[in-house]
Amino acid sequence: MLVTGGAGFIGANFVHYTLRNHPEHDVCVLDALTYAGNRDNLRSVAGQIRFVEGDVCDADLVDRLVAACDVVVHFAAESHVDNSLHDAEPFVRTNILGTYTLLEAVRRHDRRLHHISTDEVFGDLPLDSPDRFTEETPYQPSSPYAASKASSDLLVRAWVRSFGVAATLSNCANNYGPYQHVEKFVPRQVTALLAGDRPKLYGTGQNVREWTHVDDHNAAVHLVLADGRLGETYLIGSGDERSNREIVELVLELMGDRGGYDHVPDRPGHDLRYANDSSKLRDELGWRPVYSDLRAGLAATIDWYRDNRWWWEPLRDRSEARYRVLGR
Ligand code: NAD
Ligand code: DAU
């Protein structure tokens, strides 16, 4: 199994999950080790996998690695919306050209591909409505990140239809869990508090996200790999929607901190609300989130950051310096 982006947050958790639950796979990770990739995420399993440092846009390298595997799970991407608002070029390159490069190799060697995507491709939903995204919701991406992921999804769908590539897609909601980069919402707030700083809420904090534990995401990916219908898209989401303000207040409560938080300038074009209807995944493949209690899942995640300062301390200063440039 070739895992692209396996040194990032979800990809590394996927590698750990696979070795624990699906030991029949020999895992090879391809990762460019950008600022978001970290060999330490795979340190405890380094002897059980093959690691190749390289770029998913490198056609020769990708061709060789795809030829040597049976199945590819494609996580590699630029993943942070705020960065895409500052400089979209790496997003266009990795997310679009990288996916194209992989698709051509998969097509040449007739390999199975699962493409990891996001609910951000659908744009956003009104705050107070019962609406949720479905597999049929038209694409209406808001940010350069979302537009690049939407483009990659459309490439995969075209390669399925025109060339018969054996691919599936999944679009998941916001993930949380260990090894998430400190630039992202939950780790940024948790590590701020651990470092004696204050949480930072964009705008009013009313924006709503649907929170899914990373292991529940990765369990769904394995179900799709095993039994998903080729050419199909599956939405993944726990159903647990929270405003950003609620999350910050929950983190403060779980960490026993009464210090409060700061409001900072809002993200331009900030999507209001994401919510996935994951009934296709639940009905067809029997997926259910194991981490159905967000409070307990967040408490365990906070413990992980508390116990692993060595992991995040070297990353935080650089991440906060980038936020100062962005004014957030
Ligand atoms: P991440 O930024 O933590 O990790 C991305 C990984 O890809 C890093 O290890 C990085 O080094 C690698 N990478 C980047 N450019 C590369 C290139 N050109 N060649 C090879 N490797 C490269 O991202 P993440 O949060 O783990 O997201 C993984 C995937 O899941 C992405 O496709 C993202 O769109 C999708 N996704 C993320 C979430 C979420 O909440 N984080 C939710 C739904 C979907
Ligand atoms: O929905 C899936 C998407 O979730 C993934 O495709 C993306 O890769 C992933 O980064 C995430 O995107 P978001 O933009 O929703 O995540 P982020 O962690 O950047 O922010 C979550 C929410 O919190 C969002 O409404 C912005 C807000 N926020 C973020 C940060 C970093 C804050 O209020 N304060 C912050 O400091």
Major sheet strand order: 3-2-1-4-5-6-10
Q: From the 3D coordinates, which CATH architecture of one domain would you assign?
A: 3-Layer(aba) Sandwich
Query: Which parts are unreliable, with pLDDT below 50 for 5 consecutive residues or more?
Result: none
| Tally of DSSP helical segments | 11
Structural class: alpha/beta
Can you count the beta strands? 12
What share of the residues lie within helices?
A: 40-55%
Distance between the termini: 39 Å
At the fold tier of CATH, the topology name of one domain is Rossmann fold
The H-level CATH homologous superfamily of one domain, spelled out, is NAD(P)-binding Rossmann-like Domain
User: What is the general shape?
Assistant: globular
Integer-rounded radius of gyration: 19 Å
The average pLDDT is 98
Bound molecules: nicotinamide-adenine-dinucleotide, 2'deoxy-thymidine-5'-diphospho-alpha-D-glucose
